[in-house]
Amino acid sequence: MAVLGPNRYGKAETRVVRVTRHGDAHRIKDLTVSTALAGDLAEVHLSGDNSAVLPTDSQKNTVFAFAKRHGVGAIEDFALLLARHFVDSQPAIHHARVAVEEHAWERNGAFGHSFVRSGREVRTCVAHHDGTGSWVVSGLRDLVVLNTTDSEFRGFAKDEYTTLPETRDRVLATAVDVSWRHADVSEDVSPDVLPDVSPDWDKAYEKARAALLTAFADTYSLSLQQTLYAMGTRVLAECPGICEVRLSLPNRHHFLVDLAPFGLPNDGEVFFAADRPYGLIEGTVLREDAPDAGPAWE
Ligand SMILES: O=c1[nH]c(=O)c2[nH]c(=O)[nH]c2[nH]1
Hints:
This protein folds into 2 domains: 125 residues, Urate Oxidase (Roll); 161 residues, Urate Oxidase. The chain contains 5 helices and 12 strands. Strands 1-2-3-6-7-8-9-12 form an 8-stranded antiparallel β-sheet. A two-stranded antiparallel ribbon has the order 4-5. 23% of the residues lie in helices and 33% in strands. With 298 residues, the protein is an alpha+beta fold. The protein is globular. The site of uric acid has 7 residues, from helix 5. Uric acid binds next to helix 5.
């Protein structure tokens, strides 16, 4: 006998660009939005009764309509607005998860209407709402950083397969993929209304990003694991509203090239930047008194 397990459905990766026109000085928000709804959805799976199913096409349309109707400020507010809307408007839907990625653009010179896609990282968030509460995780990915010194890796365990030489000076590089959980998301659940009291998402983002970058640069690293912990603790120290930080750090290995065959020295000047395989260092840093995460990480 089979039974239906956990399930959800939605529209993945709706690409929406919202232009705001203030005279000649335009603004753009470029987002990828994914919705996922869960609730009383057994019948659609078991008997094919679609009466509880708001089509994923309608979910996509809602993203576009809300971008027009409410505008797009911080992506966390947009995600919460959508999540609350689906739960509040669909009797069968008891849980909504909305993930948003923001792709950064910069002004192209002094032109008000012209933009250059930025080489910056992608800003991310995931909002959950279940009718009684909301949870928000914010973050970023593809923040590529590199230190040319102040990184060692030695004293590690060795077995018969170990060939890695110990080093007291290496390049340390990674593409930061990080999410942080906000402890103090408003419980205001009124439909289509932004919460009265919500964290200043943009300020928290800039503070967390600055903390990550500073900790990466000023930590004398004995391992990427140690750097990960330093980055997580720095975010918690700088951002009181954040209670948990999850980091995923690929170790972008830079191998010193042997130039001796060409009669050349190589005193930490020429490296081979390998793309794979790569070490993947992952970890969570959280406050001792962090509240229960609920569905925040689902
Ligand atoms: O910072 C590092 N941590 C490791 O666990 C590891 N393993 C490895 O081969 N190089 C490194 N570097």
